[in-house]
Amino acid sequence: xxxxxxxxxxxxxxxxxxxxxxxxxxxxxxxxxxxxxxxxxxxxxxxxxxxxxxxxxxxxxxxxxxxxxxxxxxxxxxxxxxxxxxxxxxxxxxxxxxxxxxxxxxxxxxxxxxxxxxxxxxxxxxxxxxxxxxxxxxxxxxxxxxxxxxxxxxxxxxxxxxxxxxxxxxxxxxxxxxxxxxxxxxxxxxxxxxxxxxxxxxxxxxxxxxxxxxxxxxxxxxxxxxxxxxxxxxxxxxxxxxxxxxxxxxxxxxxxxxxxxxxxxxxxxxxxxxxxxxxxxxxxxxxxxxxxxxxxxxxxxxxxxxxxxxxxxxxxxxxxxxxxxxxxxxxxxxxxxxxxxxxxxxxxxxxxxxxxxxxxxxxxxxxx
Length: 368
Fold this sequence. Notes:
Elements: H1 9-28, H2 34-40, E1 49-57, E2 63-70, E3 82-88, E4 91-97, E5 99-101, E6 108-113, H3 119-126, E7 133-136, E8 152-158, H4 162-175, E9 180-187, H5 196-203, E10 208-214, E11 222-223, H6 228-234, E12 243-247, H7 249-261, E13 268-272, E14 288-291, E15 296-299, H8 305-311, E16 329-339, E17 345-346, E18 351-354, E19 358-366
């Protein structure tokens, strides 16, 4: 006699849910059911995962910490980033931030570095209020811990680059693993160190060593900007150890150069929250940029395609503005562009490019 397995209940629940939303869709035509659900509560919307701001902390110099309570749990691995969408004066803006989960809840913690002229960071620090609703995504990116935990890890960060590292440290602590971790954190002064209570709790663990480096103020274990002497002092074994670094481009570049000199690049994983500064080559800033779909032609000033499109009055969809999220891709139908991160050029017709990191070289036509 053959016994058939009991049918799974999950497909039934999924089928019922689809049936209910199908019925709602039919009844709510021509509008999506979300149009009516969000009248009762914006977090009921199904097309996106919305979250309500439940706390804003601006007490630490140079950063803002925001706690969000999403309608559905965010799925991400420690170290990954999520997309945060906010509406400012009727315009939707998307940025990338590394989250952490508040233990025992689904609340998401974001620490956002203050940037002069930063639209979203300025909004969160000065105008956002508890109760405001934003959108969040699931995790993206490969800045994550190795599946097989090594016996020792080195983590280096500065500024708001602390967030993915804290998320990783929290995961290691919850696993009660045996990896010994040295965490070197760069801040201007002691007053610029965010989420100090979390750091101190982690530093109390027997396998975590916390090293503060103050770049401008007194105190700290070390002083000054990153150089090899810092690692020689606190992690002389660094060239043989898996290392994670996240922070300003200058810090990341300094660590990257050191590991290259030591032949240890394969042990280094990096994440940057800011686009490295680049100088416009006068030879590139010539001709014009044609935005084919909108019929606008503008003089090429050498800035990225995204910046030139915005200067021309266009509002292309974009996210991180640093080449991470791939939200801002568009087809370059003709001409040549330069990757502002690497300096490499490409002129293959019909290529899809990331307009936030691509600067036109001479005459360029983009499908925008």
